[in-house]
From TrEMBL:
Source organism per UniProt: Arthrobacter methylotrophus
Gene name in the database record: fabG
Protein name (record): 3-oxoacyl-ACP reductase FabG
Source taxonomy: Bacteria, Bacillati, Actinomycetota, Actinomycetes, Micrococcales
Keyword annotations from UniProtKB, A to Z: Oxidoreductase
One Pfam family hit: adh_short_C2
Gene3D superfamilies: NAD(P)-binding Rossmann-like Domain
Length: 244
């Protein structure tokens, strides 16, 4: 995997989980363009753009997370900006949802975020600064048929961000939650045409999002301009979830 450490003063060590494709990759490119030192986790070998460090990790496995952090810390220094983005869906109606459908989604999306956040905050506390921007989903506040597991995992991120804000806010660490609406990635391609049509009916903007539209907000929340925002839940959904 490519590793180009920028020499720019103020370049931060940024880590995005599941940054080898989709929204995560768009976020990685955005931080790279900002002059930061960017690393992403991937599970299976992938081609990454020049300048992005790829480290192998499965967020359901604490040992692989620790190994990935050690690699990133050796190359770029302690992680100052963490974006827990890795996520999966196993959509099915409640009556058909097995316990494994539920717990495996919670394990990857919510416990996975907990694992990387806990590992990252060790370094952030020493630095006395850090930015955590979790990629949740509008499904976490709006709900969606067939997504009892996924919605629960994404809603849980709000509790994590707000508790971290209260525990670590005085140490210069912020934790926020972004709730994307429907974004044009592989995950969205798994959805049936009928469901896509239904989603569209709920979106005042009358279009789905590009991954870069999520990435821009993540980069801004991690910037100095957003230094006094923590524990916030920010929908980026073309207006779909207003009032929820
Ligand atoms: P993709 O399916 O395109 O990418 C998912 C990413 O997560 C991949 O990089 C994948 O790695 C990684 N990943 C999944 N499970 C694990 C795991 N156990 N350990 C490590 N990495 C893992 O999804 P999107 O880019 O669309 O989604 C990114 C995030 O945004 C997710 O959390 C998703 O829930 C959220 N989101 C997406 C929306 C959408 O409409 N697309 C809407 C709202 C939120 P690998 O390539 O190895 O499989």
């Amino acid at each position: 995997m490519t590793n180009v450490v920028t020499d720019q003063p103020g370049a931060r060590s940024v880590l995005i989980t599941g940054g080898n494709r989709g929204i995560g990759l768009a976020i990685a490119k955005s931080f790279l363009a900002n002059g930061d030192k960017v690393a992403v986790t991937y599970r299976s070998e992938t081609e990454l753009p020049e300048g992005i460090l790829g480290v192998q990790a499965d967020v359901t496995d604490a040992a692989s997370i620790d190994a990935a952090f050690k690699e990133v810390e050796a190359a770029h220094g302690p992680v100052e900006v963490l974006v827990p983005n890795a996520g999966i869906t196993k959509d099915t109606l409640l009556m058909r949802m097995t316990e494994d459908d539920f717990t495996s989604v919670l394990d990857a999306n919510l416990t996975g975020a907990f694992r990387v956040i806990q590992r990252a905050t060790k370094g952030m506390m020493k630095l006395r600064k850090g930015r955590i921007v979790m990629i949740s989903s509008v499904s976490g506040i709006y709900g969606a048929p067939g997504q009892v597991n996924y919605s629960a995992s994404k809603a849980g991120m709000i509790g994590i961000a707000r508790s971290i804000t209260r525990e670590l806010g005085a140490r210069g660490i912020t934790a926020n939650v972004i709730m994307p609406g429907v974004v044009l990635t592989d995950m969205f391609n798994e959805v049936s045409d009928d469901v896509k049509k239904k989603y569209m009916e709920d979106i005042p903007a009358a279009r789905f999002a590009e991954p870069s539209e999520i990435a821009n907000v993540v980069r801004w929340l991690a910037s100095d301009e957003a230094s006094y925002i923590s524990g916030a839940v920010i929908p980026v959904d073309g207006g779909a979830s207003m009032g929820h």
